[in-house]
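FAQ

Q: What does a record look like?
A: Structure on top, sequence underneath. For example:
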């Protein structure tokens, strides 16, 4: 009996221990900040690459890695700027010193971005066609350029070819600036700045932009109503 009792007790203890182990939550390793950032920018780059027309499968990973490298390099520049500005603020210098130091930091940031920009485009150019490089640029800037071009053409159907060319030129310049911005808000801000320039240009040509906007809204509302009525 004693031997049987000991066997039953041992079995019960083993069963209870196994159940406890099964029920115990398994701790998951915490993703580091750098790993999370790498995952995020890799996912962004994958989405851009997936939309490239005519990209050979053998180049997919290489192009993705170039874009990831650009995201990381831009982040380092912009984070470096933020760190320098925070350190300057902590020093609490007089206004003249603060202004001079801030201008120096901004100039250094601009110089670093200006150096990085052509390097990135050269890397892309060795792997992609000019049209594909433009698609990457649009991917990095949320497709604002083609969306805005379509909007102007739709809102102002009587634009001349010269006006269309000027609009495209300015939006292309805005895209080059926006590519290097540190946040989505800053990217959109660059396009906003150039759209203001475009609107002033069209107004100077005699186009009532405010009325054109109202007319465009009315046309779109009629089109939506017609589509619902079908």
């Amino acid at each position: 009996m004693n031997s049987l009792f000991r066997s039953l007790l041992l079995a019960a203890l083993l069963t209870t221990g196994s159940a406890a182990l099964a029920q115990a939550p398994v701790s998951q390793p915490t993703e580091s900040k750098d790993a999370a950032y790498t995952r995020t920018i890799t996912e962004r780059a994958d989405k851009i690459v997936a939309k490239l027309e005519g990209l050979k499968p053998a180049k997919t990973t290489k192009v993705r890695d170039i874009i990831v490298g650009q995201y990381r390099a831009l982040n380092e520049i912009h984070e470096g700027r933020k760190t320098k500005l925070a350190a300057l603020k902590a020093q609490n210098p007089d206004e003249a010193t603060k202004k001079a130091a801030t201008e120096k930091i901004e100039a250094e940031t601009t110089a670093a971005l200006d150096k990085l920009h052509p390097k990135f485009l050269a890397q892309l150019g060795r792997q992609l066609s000019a049209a594909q490089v433009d698609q990457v640029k649009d991917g990095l800037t949320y497709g604002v350029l083609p969306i805005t071009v379509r909007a102007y053409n739709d809102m102002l159907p009587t634009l001349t070819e010269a006006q269309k060319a000027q609009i495209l030129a300015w939006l292309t310049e805005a895209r080059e600036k926006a590519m290097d911005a540190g946040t989505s808000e800053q990217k959109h801000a660059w396009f906003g700045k150039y759209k203001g320039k475009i609107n002033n240009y069209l107004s100077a040509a005699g186009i009532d932009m405010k009325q054109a906007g109202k007319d465009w809204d009315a046309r779109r509302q009629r089109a939506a109503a017609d589509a619902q009525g079908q």
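Q: Is there anything notable about this one?
A: The chain is about 80% helix and 0% strand.
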